[in-house]
Write a structure and sequence with these properties.
about 15% strand; 10 strands; globular; about 375 residues; about 50% helix; disordered N terminus
Length: about 375
């Protein structure tokens, strides 16, 4: 009887939390005169949870009544600004609250090392940019994407000397990034293509070392930098660069940037644990959205990103769209949209059907 009572209380609390989030969203919408497309997309994950609250609550168990928390090894890039909520969530106990024991595994700073971590069994789940996930998944990599984390963590920055003020001014210029297929390069190829600029023939891409992207632009070796936060934020401030695009406005408004994916074998054996991980991940990012200063202090103390202050880290985290974390069908829709974009710039094969592909590489943990 005590166990059933605790479980009922958890269900009620979870349903209340979902409804509270929905009411807050509706109240904010009324203030701006209705539901804008951006607000709707940014709240898609929460809305999906509200719709499914009754069914989902029955599948979420309290640590007080459940078996010992299963361990989940989560691959992350520890210094990346958009991954800092993961470490903060572990330290804050927000994952443990949902009866999952998250062990963070530093997988390196690229999408290739993320894939390797999961393929070699060093991690069970990974956090990565959609642009890093989709090509390996198209080629048959055994991972399913199951929840989004946020929108926006990449910037396209022009030097003052270039005179570039907007995307139209990029044509004929040189863009520095840190890899031939870096996520910022791929992301902004889409931005250019949708602006009518050939992302291969109308611009020149220059590969430079990761830590020298800003220096290359400052020296005049390139006109524009394409980089990730917090490094993009840092060079924008350090060299007085002009932001002409990012991955949360313009063509990326309403897009999800990073998602969690689970190793196929681990998913089959641990679906309920992953469901709890997904809900915890949503709560973590919502918490950071409302407490960016607290998360930034942890980020500064624990990870010590070079040359950045607490105020600057708070600004970076506060700039992300942390309420954009689709799950279920909204995630499928996001992956389809991203697949269409990557086909446009020839990252995915021309024969790939974005809708069928999105359905194949995602799993609905609410079903």
């Amino acid at each position: 009887m005590a166990g059933n009572g605790a479980n009922s209380t958890d269900r009620a609390e979870f349903s209340f939390s979902c409804l509270k989030h929905q009411r807050r969203f509706m109240a904010q919408s009324k203030k701006v005169g209705g539901l804008s497309r951006r607000n709707l997309l940014k709240t898609t994950g929460a809305a999906g949870l509200v719709v499914s609250a009754g069914a989902l609550a029955g599948k979420i168990y309290s640590p007080a009544v459940a078996a010992p928390a299963p361990k989940i090894r989560l691959a992350w890039t520890e210094v990346a600004a958009c991954h800092s909520p993961l470490g903060f969530g572990v330290a804050k106990g927000l994952y443990a609250k949902h009866n999952v024991d998250v062990e963070l595994f530093y997988q390196g700073a690229s999408g290739q090392t993320l894939i390797q971590a999961l393929a070699t069994g060093k991690a069970d789940v990974g956090a990565g940019l959609i642009g890093d996930w989709l090509k390996p998944l198209e080629q048959g990599f055994d991972v399913k994407l199951f929840v989004g984390s946020h929108g926006g963590c990449q910037r396209l920055l022009a030097s003052p000397a270039s005179g570039i003020k907007d995307i139209a001014g990029v044509k004929g210029k040189t863009i520095a990034s840190y890899d031939v297929v870096s996520p910022p390069k791929v992301a902004f190829q889409v931005t250019l293509a949708k602006a009518g600029i050939d992302p291969e023939n109308d611009v020149t891409w220059k590969v430079v070392p990761f830590d020298l992207v800003g220096e290359a632009v400052n020296r005049g070796d390139a006109d524009i930098a394409a980089h990730l936060d917090p490094w993009a934020f840092s060079i924008e401030k350090k060299f007085g660069l002009t932001k002409i695009a990012d991955t949360q406005t313009g063509v990326y408004e309403g897009h999800t940037c990073c998602v969690l994916g689970a190793n196929g074998a681990f998913l089959k054996a641990n679906k309920d644990a992953l469901r709890r991980l997904a809900i915890a991940n949503i709560e973590v990012h919502d918490y950071v959205a409302d407490h960016a200063d607290e998360a930034a202090q942890w980020y500064l103390d624990a990870l010590k990103p070079a040359g950045l202050t607490h105020a600057e880290l708070t600004e970076i985290l506060g700039s992300f769209v942390l309420h954009n974390h689709p799950i279920g069908q909204p995630l499928v829709d996001q992956i389809q949209k991203s697949s269409e974009d990557l086909k446009l710039v020839k990252v995915l094969d021309s024969s790939t059907d974005p809708k069928a592909f999105a359905e194949r590489v995602t799993v609905n943990l609410l079903a």
